[in-house]
Amino acid sequence: METSSSEKLVRAVGLFGLTAIALNGMIGSGIFVLPATVAKILGPASPLAYLVSGMAVVLIVLCFAEVGSMFERAGGPYVYAREAFGSFIGFEVGWMFLLARLTATAAISNAFTAYLGFFWPALAGGAGRIASITVALTALAWVNMRGVRFGAWTVNFLTVGKLVPMLFFIIAGLFLVDLRPQTFPLVINTAALRQAGLVLIFAFGGFEFASVPSEEVINPRRNLPLALMAAIGITVILYLFIQIVAFGALPELASATAPLATAAQRFLGSMGAAVMTLGAILSTTGTNSATLLVGPRVFYVLARDGRLPAVLARVHPRFRTPYVSIALFAVMAWILAVFGSFAQLAAVSAIARLLYYITTCLSVPILRRKMPQAERAFKLLGGPLIPGAAVAISLWLLTGSTAGQVMMGVGALLLGGLIYGLQSRAVRVPLDHVG
Question: What is the pTM of this model?
Answer without folding.
Answer: 0.81
